[in-house]
Amino acid sequence: MESPKEKVKPIIVDAKLVARRQLTADVFEMVLESSAPFLFAPGQFISVLIPGAGPGGRDLRRAYSIASSPELMPTKNIFELCVKLVDGGPGTNYLNNIKIGESIKGHVPFGDFVYKTKAPRHAIFIATGTGIAPFRSMLLSKVYAENMPLTTKLIFGARDTNDLLYMDELVPLLSTDFVQTLSRPATSWPGFKGRVTDWLRENSTTLDWKHTEFYLCGNGAMIDEVKQILATHEVDKSHIHQEVYYKPKAGETHASQ
Questions:
Q1: N or C terminus of the chain: which is more exposed, having fewer CB within 10 Å?
Q2: Residue 50: predicted pLDDT
């Protein structure tokens, strides 16, 4: 098989659902067994075929970041997806109805949003919602373990504690370097209250802006606002890596995501 560092041509795979876990009220995890092993870099995605969901009954394709470490693939042909159920969303509703033992079809791997940082630089991962999926893949990967930055910080924005994802894995892994920001906590919250952008502004003097790689994934409005903050600190565009999951409609902000 090719080296993961080489450009890998996407292949078509059938993937059987072998396990499912409800992570929050509207986010679920799919554990899938691929019909054929494939290489992917942590951060890449699968383009899932949604049969008959397009105009005139045509098939659609929807992209979902792989949330698991690449090391699960060569040993078990296993990969995982983290999916948010969206009202009226053809892709998420299709995946939500897949039963254990049934299969989906997809093209994989795709995407340039991959881990690239090496010392002597820092890395800051900024995510909202299921945008945390590619960062989980990166942080659990051998690529990250063998190419660790000077420091790592993950800043994860959600509405409430019920919307936080993968706490059981990421809190022990990152400890105090894992910042959770809640925009609308329903009860008393001892952590940071506000959006990820609020945290960046309030903690601007603690960050080494010019020697850090910034990885942004999630709501498009969040990404645009973070990039404005990075521009004020003269962060070079080559040190900003992004994956947009959702572009808000007029009048919406990333606080609602």
A1: N
A2: 96
Contacts of 145 (CB under 8 A, 6+ apart): none
Residues of the chain with CATH 3.40.50.80: 122-256
CATH topology of domain 122-256: Rossmann fold (3.40.50)
CATH topology classification for 11-110? Elongation Factor Tu (Ef-tu); domain 3 (2.40.30)
Give me the numbers of helices (H) and strands (E) for the chain, helices first please: 7, 12
Cβ contacts of 156 within 8 Å, gap of 6 or more: 127, 128, 132, 164, 165, 170, 178, 179, 180, 181, 196
* Residues forming CATH 2.40.30.10 domain(s) in the chain: 11-110
Q: 6 pLDDT band (50/70/90 cuts)?
A: low
Residues 6+ apart with CB under 8 A from 17: 30, 31, 32, 98, 99, 100, 101, 102, 103, 104
d(CA 95, CA 92): 5
